[in-house]
Amino acid sequence: MKILITTATAAMVSLAAPAFAEFQQIKSRADFVEMVSGKTLTRPLVKLTVSPDGSISGRGAAWDVSGEWQWKGNYLCRSLEWGGDDLGYNCQQIMVKGTTMRITSDKGAGQSADFRLR
User: Fold this and answer.
1) What's the pTM value of the predicted model, to 2 decimals?
2) Domain for residue 86, yes or no?
3) What is residue 91's three-state secondary structure?
4) Considering the domain boundaries, does residue 3 fall inside one?
5) What is the SS3 assignment for 108?
């Protein structure tokens, strides 16, 4: 009986543990602003500042990045220019785990990029 209880307890702990390590979706403007305020989003060759006032600025590789954002529903919707090229308007899902922010285009159905919040 003791082995059965220990096995059941271990199984429950192992099922619960991954929940703490999974990405959590940011679903409000207030939560998003709290996450990015005073921080820089970084990944290799990219540094971006996403300001509470709705502006985006930084550098990607050797080119300037600029744009604007707003919150619509559960998504960050942004227009962006990179090195003078218009990357267009896109609504993106924002997921966070610790100091990692995952941004996925097309409301979570497109490509993803992970950034460190520093």
Assistant:
1) 0.80
2) yes
3) strand
4) no
5) helix
